[in-house]
Amino acid sequence: MATTFTAPTGSGARVRVQKFGTFLSNMIMPNIPALIAWGLLTALVIDVGWLPNADLATMVGPIIHYALPILIAATGGRMVHGDRGAVVGGFAVMGAIAGSDLIVANFNADLPAGDAPLGQVHMFIGAMILGPLSAYIMKRLDALWDGKVKAGFEMLVNMFSAGILAFVMALVGFYVVAPVVNEVMEVLGNAVEWLVDNSLLPLTSIVIEPAKVFFLNNAINHGVLTPLGLAEAADTGKSVLFLLEANPGPGLGLLLAYSFFGRGVPKATAPGAAIIQFFGGIHEIYFPYVLMKPRLILAMIAGGMTGVAINVAFDVGLRAPAAPGSIFAVYAQTARGDYLGVTLGVFGAAAVTLVVAGLLLKMDKSEDEGDLTAATAQMEANKGKKSSVAGALTGGVATATATATREIRNIVFACDAGMGSSAMGASVLRKKIQDAGHPEVTVVNKAIANLEDSYDLVVSHQDLTDRARQKTPSAEHVSVDNFMASPRYDEIVEMVRDNNRT
Question: Which of 148-157, 219-228, 246-255, 289-298 has the lowest mean pLDDT?
Fold first, then answer.
């Protein structure tokens, strides 16, 4: 049963950008529930909301200006150096927030009478800088005097070192990060405004759609679009920027085109993939279908541009990021009165992609029906690691790496984000174990960055196993390349049955 696995490695600019995007995503994704809560609050209680309430509306501004940046900074800090990193990072971002507010206040004080004052700049980019940076410095400082503090003084040193560093990093945020981020936000904001004023925003699809296929979407979405979108949503109640990358329409159109006009395995698997992509919001599942026929990127761009153009024409947007990019998440964040425009944007994008992709598939006279397995491998090479959902398409062969010899009571599925495909895999295995009569076994899913060495068994993609093993060295590890239907699940159930008999 046990086989060995050597994780492929990647390098180069694209892989580095992907890793950077994943790092940004890992700071944002755990805080998506807070963004959703803020979006719901805004939708309900502001003066143009569903249930206007002036008292409750006083929460809207402080949450986006203070709470959300602090949460993101604390998450980034925790990723680098645990709770100490979270505390230092969360405190440091307050310096950037206060520094930015002072800059804006001084600017507005010098404005001529009648000129519109400058609004607040929300420090999301500042949080994504100061959180991990402060935690990294804390980590280096802790390593510097680790084992050198006299007994009885550990707590004193730990508390004061973190407190002093938090104070210093807040000053860095106030005097250094705040001015830089304000300038960056102004440049990016002006660029987006220029694109909108000149009706050129749809052209962003020329960059975004190919970037998604090459897994650069996290860097674009969480590094640029989310901070800008949140700033715009705070001022206007919504932002079209949240729809640029999250619109599930182009992916739906592509998979429907394969369902109607494809051949062989791609045609047979496309309908199931469409359900996962459109309702589950896991866009990566359609990437192999583009890579099989690279010319189909034209269909994706055409659909993406159509969706953006419709959204701009109807002046619609979302209140907060839609993550994952499921149609349910999109509707949950749609601003009041924008449902028609958003619906037309999604299905217009799907329709155009369907037509263009259908024509391209029909024009393809080659005998090659498309090698989904090879395209999946190419997609995973682009990603720099195995895909958790692509295995559902290929029926990929999983790889087990461990045979447990101890009792197994807690199992964790681990992936980068710990929220999407690993959740589905955990659900599948949980049901199998319960059906086998082992209610004492718990199965959960987590991001690798949040793993603790307290699990009996860790299931991860084969390219992530080495990272998972570093976080949980005492656990048994099983590597798979198919979270949805891996044959290793039955082997894990057998492993539980053998080891939990007594």
Answer: 219-228
Reported as half-sphere exposure (CB side, CA atoms, 13 A), residue 202 has a value of 17
pLDDT at residue 343 greater than cutoff 90: yes
Of 461, 490, 464, nearest to 390 by C-alpha is: 461
Q: What angle do CA 308, 243, 283 make, to 5 degrees?
A: 105
- Share of residues in the chain with pLDDT > 70 (%): 83
Pick from 161, 350, 146, 365: which is nearest to 251 by CA?
350
Q: Is the pLDDT of residue 375 over 70?
A: no
Catalytic status, residue 415: yes
Q: Per the omega criterion (within 30 degrees of 0), is the bond before 324 cis?
A: yes
CA distances from 342 to 256, 291, 329, 349 (A): 20, 28, 12, 11
DSSP-derived letter for residue 295 is G
Using only the alpha carbons of the chain, give its radius of gyration: 24
- Written as six digits, the tokens of 125 are 């980019």
What pLDDT score does 304 carry? Answer: 94
d(CA 86, CA 75): 6
452 CB-contact burial (10 Å; exposed 0-12 / middle 13-18 / buried 19+) = exposed
Q: Which of 72-86, 128-142, 210-224, 458-472 has the lowest average pLDDT?
A: 210-224
Strand, helix or coil for residue 453: coil
The DSSP annotation for 147-211 comes to TTSPTT-HHHHHHHHHHHHHHHHHHHIIIIIHHHHHHHHHHHHHHHHHHHHTT-GGGGHHHHHHH
Query: Can you tell me the distance from the alpha carbon of 210 to that of 202, in angstroms, rounded to the nearest whole number?
Result: 14
Split at pLDDT 50, 70, 90, the class of 347 is: very high
Give the chain's largest Cα–Cα span.
81
Coil vs helix vs strand at 99: helix
DSSP class of 479? E
Which token pair is 486? Answer: 């891996």
Q: State phi, psi for 394 to the nearest 5 degrees.
A: -95, -10
How remote is the C-alpha of 24 from its chain's centroid? 8
Q: Is the pLDDT assigned to residue 104 strictly greater than 50?
A: yes
Give 224's pLDDT tier (boundaries 50, 70, 90): confident
d(CA 447, CA 412): 10
Are 357 and 302 within 8 A, CB to CB?
A: no
Indicate which residue of 415, 441, 464, 492 is catalytic. 415
Beta bridge partners of 458: 412, 477
CB 279, CB 356: distance < 8 Å: no
* CB atoms near residue 502 (< 10 Å): 4
